[in-house]
Each structure stands twice: as C-alpha cells, then as structure tokens.
Amino acid sequence: MKFLDLILYYYNNEQPLKEITLFGRKVIFKATKSFSALLQKNKEIEDKMIKFTKVTYFDDPHSLETE
C-alpha cells in the first residue's frame, strides 16, 4: 500500500474514525488519534489543518482559495 492511500483512510473525509481494516487486520485507534479527533482538539486551526492536508496529500489547490 502506498502512503497516500493510507492517508485517505486516515483522513476519512474529516469524519470520526475509531478503526480501519487493512489487509484483513483491524487497526483500532487508541493512543493515535484520528484526523477528526485532531481537528476537534485544535478548533482554532481546524481550517488551516484541512487546507494543508488537502493541498499536501490530495493536490487540491482550490482549498487555498479565500472565501
């Protein structure tokens, strides 16, 4: 699996994620927080985190446009 494919699972469209299944094995998030949990913990920079992730990993230059 490529790293970027794993990022897609982790990003999970900014939705909560408690576990993922990779190669037939379940991975449960305990010590490691999901992307959604990181957003919730860092509300003051949530928009910046989303934009950075989209541009860095998903090549979405439109996420940098000002609203």
Please describe what this structure looks like.
With 67 residues, the protein is of the alpha+beta class. The chain has one domain. Helices cover 43% and strands 12% of the residues. Strands 1-2 form a two-stranded antiparallel ribbon. The model has no long low-confidence stretch (mean pLDDT 81).
> What percentage of amino acids are in beta strands?
5-15%
What series of H and E elements makes up the topology? Answer: HEEHH
Distance between the termini: 35 Å
Number of structurally distinct domains = 1
Mean pLDDT: 81
* Radius of gyration using CA atoms only: 13 Å
Q: State the secondary-structure class.
A: alpha+beta
Poorly predicted ranges (pLDDT <50, ≥5 residues)? none
Shape: flat
Number of strands: 2
Q: Please give the share of residues in helix.
A: 40-55%
Strand order of the largest sheet: 1-2
For the report, how would you describe the main beta sheet?
2 strands, antiparallel
Continuous helix count: 3
